[in-house]
Amino acid sequence: MSLRNIGIVYRKELIDSLRDRRTVISMIVVPIFVMPLLTIGIGGVLVSQVGRAMEEVPKVMILGGHDSPNVRKQLEQLKQVNIVPEKPDYAEEISNKQIRAAVDIPEGFDAKLAAGEPMTVKIYMYEGEIKSGFGADRLQKFFRDLRDQTVQQNLRARQLPESLIQPFTIKEQNVAPPEKVGGAVLGGLVPYFVILLCLTGAMYPAMDLTAGEKERGTIETILCSPISRTHLVLGKFLMVLTASVATAVLALSSMAVSFGAGKKLLLGVAHGAADTAMQITISGKAVASIFLVVFPLAVFFSAALLAISLFAKSFKEAQSYLSPLMIVVVLPAVAAMIPGVDLNAKLALVPVLNTSLVSKEIITGTYHWNYIALIFVSSSVYAAAAIAIAVKLFQSEDVLFRT
Amino acid sequence: MIEAQHLVKRFRDKKRGTLPAVDGISFTCRPGEIYGLLGANGAGKTTTLRMLATILAPTEGTAIVAGHDVNKEPEKVRACVGFLSTATALYGRLSAFEMVQYFGRLHGMDESSLRCRIDTIFERLEMNEFRDRRCDKLSTGMKQKVSIARTLVHDPSVMIFDEPTVGLDVMAARTIAGFIRECRDAGKTVIFSTHVMSEVEKLCDHIGIIHNGKLMAEGTLAELRRRFALQDLEDIFVKVVES
Fold first, then answer.
1. Of the residues A220, A287, A357, B198, which has the fewest C-beta atoms closer than 10 A?
2. pLDDT digits (tens, 9 = 90+) for A319-346
3. Does residue A87 come out as left (phi exceeding 0), alpha (psi in the -120 to 50 range) or beta?
4. What's A100's domain CATH number?
5. Is the dihedral of CA A294, A295, A300, A302 positive or negative?
6. Same domain? A134 vs A31
7. Contact A15 B94 (CB under 8 A)
8. Residue of B55, B76, B98 lying closest to A223 (CB–CB)
9. Do A159 and A267 sit in the same domain of this protein?
10. Taking CB atoms and an 8 Å cutoff, what residues of chain B touch A15?
11. Quick one: CATH architecture of B2-80+157-242?
12. Are the beta carbons of B55 and A227 separated by less than 8 Å?
């Protein structure tokens, strides 16, 4: 094994790739600029939309209640809603977003309330539409407050304590450390991004260094040099691995920086609404551990993509082989985000899914070292097998000169 | 020196089964002479030369190139061989200098002697004008010169040319023809494949006519003329192939 020869090939491939606009775009420009722009951009739009929806004074309609001037007057005085005149097609108006919600006040509301008779207040809203939800929430709060107020008045009139209807209160207290809270939000998302970036970063160089060489006719040129085919494939493999790791590292660093900057910006817009979701602390130990489990996966991707692309006669053919592979990788990566899919000894042997699951655990501060070791070993075995296949294919004339 | 000993190469074809592209070829090519392998398209010329350059492994038989067996020491063979064909393209994103330097390094040359060697070749082939220009920005003639420099950088004793003038204009083809002669004059062993009769008549000391993977006739041009009682090489070629 000549490290010198592998180094010569690696150095040449690195120079060659860095001069290729398409590689630079996929390895450097996309991870540094596009990924954070996308994630923060989408997050920003989401938070600002929610903020705007919360600020809006929703138009609501009062249906009936003409015999109950008290409740109508109180509703009309509410600053959080804008009362519009009653119309029979209220449901259509809600659907068309002309009004956000409507409340149906039962007949004789004021009198029944004073008499303590049971009744039902109906609030009409459009399920799943955020602004309609906010309108309905405000109406519901008004009637809940009115109900509580009436109960308190009745209790006072009968000289009974308030604890009669509320003997105790319930309060939830979080005991999870901050990284757990952050991890719960981003636990599945970060590994998904890392795995996907490792794959996409390796994809273009893998095709360019194999099928691309065949297409450009340089494969025969390099094969007539004295370098062994094993050294040649290892030099190329190191280049693909560099691109894979660089893409993931650059994208994550860039996302971390823009997340920090974006957090302040977004919190300003959202008036604290996104505060809990953004309480994210990922320790150095977690970063190192994730790198430990993701690195063999990047090796596996690089070698596998190199082997598959080598089989193709042209760049276009290589693209048609590798594009479906995205789905094969994305599915197990996404599967780890499904609640209830937890790491066990069997899943620790499933490539991609194992890395995704263990990364999710690591981000939430859980370290099952036996699983981490098992995943590292199993991923390393898959990676070694993929490298061996790539080396073997480089020895095959049928593959190199496939016509 | 090249000694091909009963070289056979069979390819597998899904529809037609196993096909012999080269079927038991033997010949000798000596230092200081140009051996021309003449044959129609698909006759087995490229496969024979690729086996000599160890890009393909023979199915049967062997060849001794510069004292090394192509089956046993392929890397040593490649270290002594300069291989040039229209299929051996250049790395477009490397400069002319980087391209030649890369192959010098792959041949294990140390940096100082490699630099001296590149300077000499670039001076000799008048390449300094486009030394640092990327290969994809070069004209066809310039590219040919870079390819020649690439094959010469390690000063090989054996030169293999596989239809090196296909698709080239007259000037570029003349550059290549001149270069082949220079290699012979420098005492190198030169083997050259073509289907162009005039090139063979002008350049080759020995001619081998190849057809359907078999070497049908061999000798100097004068010997072939005598044996077939014909003057024109094209007539000789047709007679050999039809027989």
1. B198
2. 999 988 888 888 888 887 777 778 888 8
3. beta
4. 3.40.1710.10
5. positive
6. no
7. yes
8. B55
9. no
10. 93-94, 98
11. 3-Layer(aba) Sandwich (3.40)
12. no
Domain boundary residue, one of A112, A141, A164: A164
The Cα A210–Cα A314 span in angstroms is 9
User: A228 and B75 in contact by Cβ < 8 A?
Assistant: yes
Residue of A nearest to B87 (CA): A217
Tell me the chain A residues in contact with residue B106 when contact means C-beta distances shorter than 8 Å: 5, 8-9, 225-227
The string of pLDDT tens digits covering residues B37-46 is 999 988 999 9
- Whether A187 and A229 map to the same domain: the answer is yes
Q: Determine the pLDDT at residue A264.
A: 62
- Angle subtended at Cα A201 by Cα A284 and Cα A216, rounded to the nearest 5 degrees: 155
Question: Is A116 among the domain residues?
Answer: yes
Inter-helix orientation angle A3-18/B96-106, to 10°: 160
Tell me whether A227 touches chain B (CB under 8 Å): yes
| Closest alpha carbon to B52 in B156, B160, B151 | B160
Same domain, A102 and A231: no
Q: Give the Cα separation of B91 and A9 in Å (integer).
A: 13
Residue A273 has pLDDT above 50, yes or no: no
CA geometry: angle A109, A113, A116, nearest 5 deg = 135
Please check the confidence at residue A358 and state whether its pLDDT lies above 80: yes
d(CA A38, nearest CA chain B) in Å: 32
Looking at the structure, tell me whether residues A188 and A160 fall in a common domain: no
Please tell me whether residues A215 and A265 are part of one structural domain: yes
**Residue A375 domain flag:** yes
- CB-based contact (8 Å) between A21 and chain B? no
- Beta bridge partners, A60, equal A83, A101
Say which DSSP state A30 is in.
I
Question: Do A140 and A231 lie in a common domain?
Answer: no
Residue-range domain boundaries for chain B: 2-80+157-242, 88-155
Say yes or no for a CB contact (<8 Å) between B94 and A12.
Answer: yes
A224 contacts on B by Cβ (under 8 Å): 53-55, 78, 81, 83, 88
ipTM score for this prediction:
0.89
Q: Nearest CA to CA, how far is B223 from chain A (Å)?
A: 34
Domain count, chain A: 2
- Name the one residue in this structure whose structure tokens are 């047709």: B238
Q: Which domain holds residue A273?
A: 3-37+178-400
Residue of A10, A20, A225, A229 to mutate when probing chain B, most B C-beta within 10 A: A225
